[in-house]
Amino acid sequence: MADIVDSMLDLMRRLPPTRVEENVASLVSICPDYEDDLLSSVDQPLKVMTDRTTGKEYLACDYNRDGGSYRSPWSNEYDPPLDDGTVPSSKLRKLELTANEAFDTYREMYYEGGVSSVFLWDLDDGGFAGVVLLKKVLNPTDSSQPGGSWDSIHVFETSERGRQAHYKLTSTIMLHLITKGETAGEVNLSGSMTRQHEQDAPLTDASSHITNTGRMIEDMEIKMRNLLQEVYFGKTRDIISDLRSSSSLEQERKQRQVQKELMSLMKR
């Protein structure tokens, strides 16, 4: 079993990230017995769904999935309806509602749009875990404007130790960008990045979990965003500049001629 799942994951790492959903569906059709293992191991772009009861949008992923149904954080109901679906305890459900309101404000401040969702679940050891989902889609109004999407998946686990809480955070960002220009043509940039972090934080009441995880997620997103901009985009720009020049051959000849003249003057 492990060998088959590892082989499927190894294959997914070599396939285009823009077609991850199609590739996962193909592998599931080939090996249906390993559907749950594959879906829980491969990060896919978040799906936007609408709560039938409240009319609010929420995000669907493997963490709020039970079979073929997805639980809404607003009404706590599954779509399609599921009678015996897994739901958090009443105490954790109250915290989940508060967390959704808090991260909805965070989303509006940092993303200026998009959709966010928070899902919590109880652990066997008495603690709890959760996931914070954020998605922003850029839809171009015409072919000359860039388009793409940003998906953030922050999975955390917490355990209380007196007046302290220990948090384990695993953050994944999936980025998809498409831009077109006269000089560069069409550029399609897609990929994902995953980082982990652990820390202890003071705990005064249940709401402190929202503050602590919110601060960790905010710091992590800033670091990963800077890393994408400075390292990944920077390296891509350098490689493209070395492989392909936007200036004409005549301009390059003139530049080389000027360099030769300057070198000859320096030698005198």
Architecture overview:
- A five-stranded antiparallel beta sheet has the order 6-7-8-9-10. A three-stranded antiparallel beta sheet has the order 3-4-5, with no helix packed on it.
- The protein has six helices and ten strands; from the N terminus they run H-H-H-E-E-E-E-E-H-E-E-E-E-E-H-H.
- The protein is an alpha+beta fold and 268 residues long.
- 17% of the residues are buried.
- Strand 1 and strand 2 form a beta hairpin.
- It starts with a helix and ends with a helix.
Put the structure in a nutshell:
With 268 residues, the chain is of the alpha+beta class.
Continuous helix count: 6
Helix/strand-derived class?
alpha+beta
The string of secondary-structure elements, in order, is HHHEEEEEHEEEEEHH
- How far from one another are the termini? 75 Å
Overall geometric form: elongated
Biggest sheet: strands side by side, in what order?
A: 6-7-8-9-10
Q: Unreliable segments (pLDDT under 50, ≥5 consecutive)?
A: none
Keywords:
268 residues, alpha+beta, 6 helices, 10 strands, elongated
Structural topology:
Elements (H helix, E strand, L loop, with lengths): L1 H11 L7 H11 L4 H7 L5 E4 L6 E4 L4 E2 L2 E3 L6 E2 L10 H22 L3 E8 L5 E11 L8 E15 L2 E18 L3 E18 L5 H36 L5 H19 L1
Antiparallel strand pairs: 1-2, 3-4, 4-5, 6-7, 7-8, 8-9, 9-10
